[in-house]
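Internal QA ticket QA-208
Title: Verify multi-chain structure generation after dependency bump
Assignee: T.L.

Test input:
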Amino acid sequence: MTRELVAKLRARGAHRGQGQTSISYEPEEMKVLLEEMCSAEGIKLQLHTRVAAAYRERNRLRTIVTESKSGRQAWRAEVFIDTTGDGDLGAQAGCEWEIGQAENCPCQPMSMCALLVVQDALALAHVIHGSGTGHGKNNSATKRAFLKEIRRAGFDPSYGMPTMFPMRDNLVAVMINHEYGIKPFEADRVTEATVRARAEIHGIVHGLRKLGGPWEGVQIAATPEQIGIRDGRRIRGRYVVAKEDLLKGIRHHDGVVRPTFTVDVHALTRADNAKHAYSNAGVKMKPYDIPLRALIARDVDGLMMAGRCISGDFISHASYRVTGNAVAMGEAAGVVSALSVRDGLLPHNLEWERVASALAKVRA
Ligand SMILES: Cc1cc2nc3c(=O)[nH]c(=O)nc-3n(C[C@H](O)[C@H](O)[C@H](O)COP(=O)(O)OP(=O)(O)OC[C@H]3O[C@@H](n4cnc5c(N)ncnc54)[C@H](O)[C@@H]3O)c2cc1C
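Actual output:
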């Protein structure tokens, strides 16, 4: 699926970077591409809809309730997949879960990103963290140079390694903000963090514009409606991906994703940020397998997870939480759910050989 997406983005000229693992893409093109792909497959979407409750019949998840402009709606299905990132559905269904390093949430910080339009991206090449784009180099020098510019504008950003990514022509994305110690299910605190982060971005961009030179005319094209969340609930599955798996580069007979992304732990506190804005927490990972079992809830039948809310520990989550892995997990969970419905078997009762052959066909 990742290969297909990258090829389609490339065909639209919306993809920057070589290969499959280190790319950037235009968010607006990705949105419309995903909608077109769903439409072509006859997938019915309902946007702006939140899972609000889950109901079990004994141990089996049977009904979920959502809220939207259509009011409260109940949905029955044979298998559900929790892709809420924060594990909202798993938690509502009564699954055990963990978050951050421990219960009181020393968590990875949240960050708001923003899209900017600059007058001449080439004039800012020294601060643009390239992805083989010809706009800059993939090293921390560009981040240090960007930090220097932000300080020259009179700001000390809450994220110590501010990054500017190339998107297309004079469209770039920036990540310059960290919000510490917030749980994603505390709506009031997520709201405060969102408002604070947006104010920080606006302040810094206005400050850069005042510098003139290559910054002249820099504009904010978009900020998201909600701050980005790194750490959410990790729903307990039939396998827990662990730090040791990364150290060993573990293989599983039912591996569905093989992450290659490093452990990426952003500073948990403002004090940490002053020393290391992010680090690999001393873990040198080797590519490892995520088994299907980590995508199947342990405590509730008929529930799968995909994306950053699957079953793992703090360190492994810091590696598998990124987009490419989430795509492959979603693909695997989708195939398994479809087989499960077709064969009338719960996901954990499917024969692995049948799953492997169906997944191989989809991935061929
Ligand atoms: C600031 C930042 C920078 C990042 N940079 C990179 C990067 O450079 N490269 C990379 O690969 N990854 C990066 N990541 C990680 C990556 O974006 C996420 O980890 C990845 O998107 C996880 O995907 P997901 O689908 O599991 O969760 P999410 O992308 O969080 O998606 C969850 C979705 O579920 C919806 N949702 C939540 N709760 C409910 C509910 N109750 N009911 C219905 N819907 C709900 C949300 O609105 C959202 O649309 C970054 C993350 C952040 C925060």
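Spot checks passed. The radius of gyration is 21 Å.
Status: verified.
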